[in-house]
Amino acid sequence: MESLLFEDLHQNRHRLSFCGKIISFKCKRASPTNGSDFSELLFHSLSFKREHNAFLKAADGAAVISRKRSAHVDVVTCKCAVDVQNRVTTPCVLVENKRKEAGSVHYSLLSLSNSNRLEPLIEFKLPYEIREKVSILQGPTVLWSHAGKVFYTSLQIGEVRQIPFQLSHSVFGELPLPKGQTFVLGLQKLSEPCSDNQSTSQTLGCFVESGLMFDGSVVLPHPYICITRCLLVLSADKVEGVLKSAVVAATSTRQLVYFEDGMVKDTCQVPFDQPDDIQVVNTGRNGVLFVMSFHQGHVCAIWKETFQIASHWSGVSSVHVNDFLGCGTDQMLLIFKDEGAPGQPLEHFIITDLCGILYSHGQDSNVGKSSPPPPENYLLTLRALESRLQSGLMVLQELQREVRVKEKVLQQSVQALTDVVSEREMILTQPEQEGLIALWDCDDESKDEVLEDKTQDMPAMSSKPQVDKLWHRIVEDRMVVGVILSTDGSVPVVSVSLSILTETGQSSTPAVIQTQSQVFWLPALSPSSSSSSSSAFMFLEPAAKRTKQHNAGRSNDLNTCRLAVTAVTRLTPLLNSGRVKCRVMLHYVQRQDATALVSNPTPAVLHCGQVILDIHSDFQTKLLKNPKLKSDEVTEDLLSLLVVLDHWVFHIASPDHSLGDIDCWIQKRVGCERIEVNPQYLLLNSSGPSAVMLLHWHQITPFQGELSIHSSQLPMLQFLDSLLAYLPASCSVRSVKGTRGQGTSQIFSLTLEKEVGSLREFVSLLLCGEQEDEGSRRRSTGHEETTESGSVEGLKRCREVWQQDVERSRMRLSPLVDVGRYRKLTQSLFEVQLDGDLAALIETQRTLLS
C-alpha cells in the first residue's frame, strides 16, 4: 500500500469516517480519450497503521457523474447515514451537476457499498442552486433550506417535497429512537397579534417522515431557536405520549448548552465563534467528550460529566470520530492544514482521546494541551481546592500530634519497665497531666452517669399539650386570639394552628371564621413563676451535650416547652351582633419522633375554651401605656402587635463606616422605649395602634446588620427615609424577603441534632450486649485489686492486667452484632436521615427564595 499525499487531503475537505477508516471524496474531469470528455467522482479509503504511524490507502474507486463537456460537477456534502431499507449505516455523498445551457441543477446522492462501489440512491432537479445549509440524515434523507422554506427528499418518497408550513431559523435533527425520526425545528409567526410582553412566534417541530407537527419547546426552548447553529440529540423516549429528550446545542453566543426535556441544565462557554458540528466521543471508562468544530478551523473538546473544556486546537482542516485503532473505544482524528510546500509526502494529523491515547505525525503533539481561558467560576474552584488543602493539613497535624503522644507513652512505658527491672521506684504522672483520657471508667459514679444518660434518652409517654391560658385582644379592626400551651419536649407538637367558631345564639350553628395562625416559643417556666422573662419569643437552644443532673426536678423543667399560638381575624364577620361567643379549637400533629417531618403524622384537635367578645367594650393595651411593665398581659400585648403589624427586614451594609451607632440613634428618637418583657424590641409609639412601630436591630458584623420593623407601611417608609438621611451615602439598604419562613432553620437544626443523637443511641444499643459481657469479665478478673508495682510479682500482675485490657479493647473494636437488631436500627436511622434531608431541602429553598 502506498502512502497518501497530504496535498490530496488538503485539496478537498469532504471527508467522513466509517468503520475506522477515513474516506475522502473529490470530483475530477477526466482527460479526453477517443474524443470523450466526462466528469467523475473519486474516493479514497484510508486506514491507520500503528506500525507505520500513518494513514495508508486501503481502497479507491470512481463513478462517472456526467459525460457533458459543459457540466460542472462538485461535491456538496458527505456524511454517514442509516439506510432504512437495508438497516445498515452507509457513507453517502451529495454531488451537484450544473450545466450552463440548462435552466436547472441536477443533484445525485450516492452511497459507497461494502464492495467499494459508488451506487446512486436519489436523483432530483432543482431550479436553483442549494446555497444554504444542507444535511444528510437517516433514511437517507436530504434536507435543505431555500428562501425561508425547508425542502426534503428521500429514497422512500422519490421526489422533492416541502414542509407544509413556513419556518424561520430552522434547525435539523434526528431522534435516536428504534424507528428513527428526522425532525425540523423552527419559529412560526402567529396569525393573531400579540401584546407587547408576548412573543409573536411559536416554536414548532415537524417529523419529516410522517408530516406530524409537535411542540418544539420540548426539544429546544423558544429563545434558543434563533441562536442555535447545530444540535445533537443524545437520547429520546416517548413516555405516555410525551417526548422526553436530552439535547446539546451549539449557539452563536459561544455556548454549548445541555437541555433535558426542553429545560436548560448546564452551559459551557467555548472560546470560538461560528460552530458547525457536534460529535460524541465515547472513551469507555474515562467518560464521554463532546467535540465541536468551528468555521475557521477551530476544534474544542468538552467533558460531558463536568461540562468543562478539556482541550482545543486551531488550524484544523477536519475532525472525525471513530475507532481508528480498533481498540473498542472512540478516538478523535484531527487533520491539520498543511503549512509547508504542496506535495510533501507527510500527513499532518493527531489521533487522541485525551485519556492516554496519542498518535501524532507531522504535527506537534503538544498542540491542544494549552488550557483555554479560565471559566468564570475558577475562583470558586480554587477556593474549594484551598479548603480541601487546609482540611488535609489539619488532619496531618492531628496525626502528628497523635504520633508524638504515642512516642511519649512508649518512652514512659520503657522507663517504667527499666525502673522495675532495676528495682527502682517508678514515678508515674497522672493521665490528666499528659492530656490523656482513660479508655475505660471503672468507678461506680461513671456507671451511674451512663445509666442516667440512658434514662434521659428514653422517649417520654405521649401526652396532650396543656392549655395554660386563653386570651384575646382587639387591635383596630382585627381580633387576636391566643393560647399559651405547655407540651413535653420529647414528644413535640407540629403543624399547630387555631380555628375560631362563632355562636351568635343558642339555635344557630357554629360558623368557622377565616384566620391566620402563628406560633411563638416561650421560655419554660416553673409553676411558681408566672411572669415572662426577657428571653420570650426566642427559640430554645438544642442541648449539645447532656451533663449529670444533681436536681431530680430539673430534668422535667428542661423537657417542658411553652408555646404561644395566635390566630388573627377581621371583625367584619362579627359585626352582625353586639355580643359574640367564640369557641377556640387547637389543631396540631403529635409525633413520637422529635424532629420527624413526614413519618406517621397523627392530627388531633383540642378544645381550648370560649371567648366572649363584646365589640362595644374598650380594650386597653398596657404595653402601649407603659413598656416597662413585666407581666403576662404585657407579653400578650406584644404578641398581638407582632401578629397584626406587617413585618419587614432590611439588610444594611456599610463598606466605609461602622454601624455601631444605629442602635443609639434609634433609642434617641422621641417616644422610643425598650420593652422589658423582651428587651430585643424597641417600641416607637406615636399615637394609636396604627402608628405603633416595633424595631429590632441585629448587629452581624461591625459593618453589617439587619433591621427588623413591625409596623404599617406608611410609618415604615417615614422611618426608613429618616434612617437613610442619617446613614452615610456609601451604605446600602436591601430588603430581605421570606422572613416568615425563618422557622425552617430551627427545624433543620433540630433535625441534625436528632440525627446525631440517634446515631449515638443506635451504636450504644448495638454494643450494649458486648459492654455487659465486658463488665462481667472485668468483675470476674478482679481488676480493682491493688498491686505493688515495685516487686516482680506486682510487675507480672500489671502485665496480666495490661494484656486483659488489650484483649477487651480488641473485642470492643470488633464486636459481634446481631443481624436482626442491626437491620432494624439501620432502617430507623435511614428514616431519621430522610427527615433531615427533607428539612435541608426546605431550608435551601427558603434561602434561595430569600
Automatic annotation (TrEMBL):
Organism superkingdom: Eukaryota
Signal peptide span: none
Coiled coil: 382-416
Keywords: Coiled coil
Annotated InterPro entries: FANCB
Example GO biological process: negative regulation of double-strand break repair via homologous recombination
Keyword Coiled coil listed: yes
One CC-aspect GO term: Fanconi anaemia nuclear complex
Keyword Coiled coil in annotation: yes
This protein's name: Fanconi anemia group B protein
Annotated source species: Scomber scombrus (Atlantic mackerel)
Lineage summary: Eukaryota, Metazoa, Chordata, Craniata, Vertebrata
